[in-house]
Write a structure and sequence with these properties.
The complex is a heterodimer of chains A (about 110) and B (about 110).
Chain A (H helix, E strand, L loop, with lengths): L9 E5 L4 E6 L7 E7 L6 E7 L4 E3 L3 E6 L4 E6 L8 E8 L7 E2 L3 E6 L1
Chain B lengths: L4 E3 L2 E4 L5 E6 L6 E8 L3 E9 L2 E5 L6 E5 L5 E5 L8 E9 L2 E7 L3 E5 L1
Parallel strand pairs in B: 2-11
Antiparallel strand pairs in B: 1-3, 3-8, 4-5, 4-9, 5-6, 7-8, 9-10, 9-11
Classes of the chains: A mainly beta (about 110), B mainly beta (about 110).
Chain lengths: ~110, ~110
């Protein structure tokens, strides 16, 4: 079903530290997941994706972990920088319909 | 390469009016999707157009409609506006079948008074 954003969790991390953002997805049939970053006044920006046949995928300073057993997705950002401050959304999809369902979002604030 | 552009960026309307928002996709992207973003409901999928045909639809009332032109540009229309339609409306374009290529525009912020 559609995601309902009742509350936006927040996470504050010291610059240079690693951060982990978590997401619980709703549909066990989802087979593709994306993390997006949204900065103030901008549209969401693709960060990294993962298919359901994978447990982990790494990008530049980012790693996504997928645990299908508990329907959990996480985004790890290494060595955080001030530019990482944004709202981060996970999104899930089934390849059958290509319709993205977004999670609530987490606001990440990097403390200088 | 130019990004996704949306016009207008800001709009104020009153209840009962209708509104048309426009989206120009990235060159070569033929799939255009629309999303509504509100503080209460988050980001919700409205519909997707590809080759001038609606391919997917979210759970929104019939007051929300859209269309796509032969040059892949898309418009969405909301009729009989309600206060709850106040939101940021985002358009995203991509190569269909490749969601990793999806890019969002900056959005149109609609305020209904």
């Amino acid at each position: 079903g559609e995601s309902v954003g009742l509350h936006l969790p927040t996470l504050s991390v010291q610059e240079g530290d690693n951060s982990i953002i978590n997401c619980a997805y709703s549909n066990s049939a989802s087979d593709y997941f994306i993390w997006y970053k949204q900065e103030s006044g901008k549209g969401p920006q693709f960060i990294i994706d993962i298919r359901s046949n994978m447990d982990k995928r790494q990008g530049q300073r980012v790693t996504v972990l997928l645990n299908k057993t508990v329907k959990h997705l996480s985004l790890q950002i290494a060595a955080t920088q001030p530019g990482d401050s944004a709202v981060y959304f996970c999104a899930e999809m089934n390849f059958g319909n290509e319709k993205l369902t977004f999670g609530t979002g987490t606001r990440l604030t990097i403390i200088p | 390469k130019a990004g996704v552009t949306q016009t207008p960026r800001y709009l104020i309307k009153t209840r009962g009016q209708q509104v048309t928002l426009s989206c120009s996709p990235i060159s070569g992207h033929r799939s255009v999707s629309w999303y509504q973003q509100t503080p209460g409901q988050g980001l919700q999928f409205l519909f997707e157009y590809f080759s001038e045909t609606q391919r997917n639809k979210g759970n929104f009332p019939g007051r929300f409609s859209g269309r796509q032109f032969s040059n892949s540009r898309s418009e969405m229309n909301v009729s009989t506006l309600e206060l709850g339609d106040s939101a940021l409306y985002l358009c995203a374009s991509r190569v269909r079948g490749a969601l990793e290529t999806q890019y969002f525009g900056p959005g149109t912020r609609l305020l209904v008074l």
